[in-house]
Amino acid sequence: YRVGALEFRGVHCVGMPGPASKRRVPVSQAGMTDPHQLFDDTSSDQSRCYGAQRASGDLGYPTTTSSPQADFLAHPVSNMAVAYGSSLAAQGKELVDKNIDRFIPVTKLKYYFAVDTVYVGKKLGLLVFPYLHQDWEVQYQQDTPVAPRFDVNAPDLYIPAMAFITYILVAGLALGTQDRFSPDLLGLQASSALAWLTLEVMAILLSLYLVTVNTDLTTIDLVAFLGYKYVGMIGGVLMGLLFGKIGYYLVLGWCCVSIFVFMIRTLRLKILAEAAAEGVPVRGARNQLRMYLTMAVAAAQPLLMYWLTFHLVR
């Protein structure tokens, strides 16, 4: 209907179609989303919220509330408890270190493992060919023996330990090639070798006590010197596996003679310290006993080398 300049359009209700009516799509207004968009874009809202949070902080970051744990640690009583616990832990560590050092001299063991590749190569050559070596005295620096890596004459525990482990592995290989391998038999081989080594050390210490020898030879030194025989045992068993009994007896015989010479020349300066210090042999019953003890220790090495390896080669 038109009244003057105004125009009124009729309102069409549902179910009452009007003339030439068409579906109208509402025009998107400012701030309204696209009707074809599946998801709402909230990045602007988040940025505004994040900006508000940053604005509320002291240094431009959102403010954080302290947790109950932080409040507890900030309490003076808790700080005292933490300090007391730290002191108890330090005292316990010191007590453990003292007890370990009393029974196992860790600081001394570090000296016997201070080796390098050059020393190991020279030492193995000295054990196999001791006939060409001339100077057998251990070098000292301010009344303290130098580390083994600086002196080939110094005793070490690296070669005996590695040689013992290798000997057990080679024994297991020999038993396996003969179809006699079993974990029990391999354990018996290792325990028997350790038992003989322990008996040797105890016998030598008892002999030194009975003969009343004043020497700087320690128990660890004895273990090191007595453990060098495993190198020859490994060589003998390996040659026995490759070439039979002939190779075994040839290589083991050579290694037995070499270890005998090595022990004589090494222990002579340890057990016969008085005669070596004076430079001339001192005749007397006590020095004869010392010489006999040195010969007995050196002669026991070939016997044990054969006893611990002869059953591995067939």
UniProtKB/TrEMBL annotation:
The UniProt record lists the keyword Ion transport: no
Domain of life: Eukaryota
Localisation: Endoplasmic reticulum membrane; Golgi apparatus membrane
Keyword Magnesium: no
Signal peptide: none
Pfam families (UniProt xref): YIF1 (PF03878)
Transmembrane segments: 157-176, 188-210, 222-242, 248-268, 289-308
One GO term of the biological process aspect: protein targeting to membrane
Membrane topology: Multi-pass membrane protein
InterPro entries: Yif1_fam
GO cellular component: COPII-coated ER to Golgi transport vesicle; endoplasmic reticulum membrane; endoplasmic reticulum-Golgi intermediate compartment; Golgi membrane
Keywords tagged on the record: Endoplasmic reticulum, Golgi apparatus, Membrane, Protein transport, Transmembrane, Transmembrane helix, Transport
Function, in words: Has a role in transport between endoplasmic reticulum and Golgi.
Family: Belongs to the YIF1 family.
Name under which the protein is recorded: Protein YIF1
Highest classification ranks of the organism: Eukaryota, Metazoa, Chordata, Craniata, Vertebrata
